[in-house]
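[Automated response] Your request has been received and processed.

Submitted sequence:
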Amino acid sequence: MQQYYVDKIEEQLKKKLPGKASQNKMASSIRIQHEIEMLKIKVPKHSSILLLLYPNDNNLFTVLIQRNAYEGVHSNQVSFPGGQKEKNDTNYLTTALREAEEEIGIDTSKIKILGELTDLYVPPSNFIIHPFVGYCEKTPIFTPQKNEVKEILKVPIADLQNRKNIKNKIMEWEIGGFYETKYYDICNKVVWGATAMIISEFMDVIKK
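Generated structure:
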């Protein structure tokens, strides 16, 4: 049954994606405004993330990480495994797989790439994120990279589909000011911003 479900996800990822309209369900109006303004004045850098699907106890899961505290705009935040494209990376997919291997210690040779989601610009860090969706037939053995990863979060897809886990919160904008935004309440963590927007699009993909 799970393989059928994964095959259907792969099929949907080959069709027209829900795109920004879906992402913006979990974005604040101030974020959308800053995206337009920042893209006019800055040349963005590029990064990739991996939304990894895997079976666990007859359910489908994904994995998130909570980053360590550091001096940067994404300190202590919850995200997908991923990071900046490096010179030796052949393409954005190479970046996603390399970062996943480094950050959560998985064997990326066991991963089948199902497709891509819509690119997403992040104004505070000036990055365009390239999200990839992969599937591992068995539950991976996770080994966090201690320098970057505070905690690995194993998340049932059903928890992301549960609308009761979408809540509102007053957040502080990294470049100044406060605003209200939606977030996913997952594993007792606040999952918001770009990560929540990527999840939002993926939820619309699998809804079909």
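Summary generated for your ticket: The chain has six helices and eleven strands. The longest helix spans residues 193-207.
If you did not submit this request, please reply to this message.
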